[in-house]
Amino acid sequence: MTLRPILIHPDPRLKKVCDPVAAVDDDLRALIDDMLETMYDAPGVGLAASQIGVMQRLFVMDCSEKDEAPEPMALVNPEIVWTSEETRVHEEGCLSIPDIYADVTRPDRVRVRWLDRDGTECEGEFDGLRATCAQHEIDHLNGKLFIDYLGSMKRQMITQKMKKLKRERAKQGA
Ligand code: K2U
Ligand code: ZN
To answer: pLDDT, tens digit, for every residue of 90-112?
Structure first.
């Protein structure tokens, strides 16, 4: 398994719509393992393939509580097939937009269809943090970031902050 560098906004790859995964094979399972290692190391509760520059429709997620057993999930070619009318506000952050948090309103519950790491068809209903995370990650696969739900002034301010961070990291040779 390998830690992969996480792209930082602004990056054109984070705005691209990802391509469907053609085959669930050993290469994809190795990528899934790299994504899980990278997510846990960040740390985060989710990570989309496009955040490590792989423009394919898959993400990993583990929303288990600290005192619970880890519950790593890989969702390949995920589709939201139903959303609740009820909505919920949740403070979101993003590994591609470090140290920025803002409230985002999304459907409270979603039903998702996906392939797991063995290529088995799965379907499930997510609520709570899993619902927020799954929607956040599927947005990534569609080239959308949580800051796209904010006002343009706030989004521009955040983008300028990230450009400064990237310049500083480049100077440090990160
Ligand atoms: O996609 C990512 O950047 C990973 C996010 C996923 C996520 C964002 C918002 C809400 C739930 C999940 C990271 O896990 S960021 C860590 C985090 C988690 C919850 C709230 C705020 C930040
Ligand atoms: Zn994110």
So the answer is: 999 999 999 999 999 999 999 99
